[in-house]
Amino acid sequence: NSSHHLQLVQSGSLRLNISMALTQIFVWPFIYINILMILTFFRKQSFRTETRYILFAYTLFVDLIFLILTDFVIFLSYSYILMPMAFCIPICMLMETLTTCTPLTITAMCVERYVAICMPLRHSAISTVHRTLTVILIIWITCFIKPFVDLLILVTTASKEYMSQFTFCHYEIMMPDSSHRLIRGILHFFGFTLVLLVEIFCYVMIMISARAASVNKNLAVKGLRTITLHMLQLTLCTTEIICPYIEALIIELDIQVYLSVRFFNFIMFTVIARAVSPFVYGLRDEQFYATLLYFVRCRQNHVSSE
């Protein structure tokens, strides 16, 4: 709430300034990398016709928007700038949607690898551009349902005074009731469990297929490594959802400890978690990496010639 934020500001402006500077150092390089990889995706026609590259580009776009919005919200918070509820609610809904989009897209990418390795003859028929775009649309709709329901509950239960106040832009303003926040945490836990089970299923099936003589061994091994990295990314993204509950307990005990924990959680579970996607496909994929290097060199030559 506002009193806690006031204590944060008064607890040490130098520390907040250092945290803000370090945040920019961590965030903007990844924003630049994501933009560079999105441009690389559009440079080659073959990338726009393969399911895994389309899902990869979609993940980059989601992470890019999320990092920009998160950095904006952090700037408002560190600067102690209060905004109207009508301004914060759409931002919070969009950020919540983007947060949920990431694990679902990761799951879709794991399923695509499972189909490519375990059902290679049907892969081209199943993984079409049209179906991929349909899956992305379904992910967006699914992820938007929860924030939309939270908005309906907020509008019908909150007072006019609450809706007209100025506040900081964090999703907890959508759930002033503690029981509502508890239900949200339980739903996130079950969602994580379901997604994790799907990824474990894909991993086990690919591992079984890797032992078969008819399967490309190298492709299967790469698929196992990819899904392992996806499970790591899923764990980091899910931990990010749990962090606010931990921080809410710590802030009641010690403001200084809360500052350190919140900064660590942001760097580790928000920024680093979204750095896994460029590594999984952007740097490990030989075809995409070669195109990325060619694109970067062309840009450098163009700038130097000017």
From TrEMBL:
One of its GO terms (molecular function) is G protein-coupled receptor activity. Keywords: Membrane, Receptor, Transmembrane, Transmembrane helix. The keyword Hydrolase does not apply. This is Growth hormone secretagogue receptor type 1-like. The chain crosses the membrane at residues 20-42, 54-78, 84-111, 132-155, 185-206, 227-251, 263-283. The keyword Transmembrane helix applies. Residues 33-281 form the G-protein coupled receptors family 1 profile domain. It is found in: Membrane. It comes from Silurus asotus (Amur catfish). InterPro entries: GPCR1_Superfamily_Member, GPCR_Rhodpsn, GPCR_Rhodpsn_7TM. GO terms for cellular component: membrane. It comes from the Eukaryota.
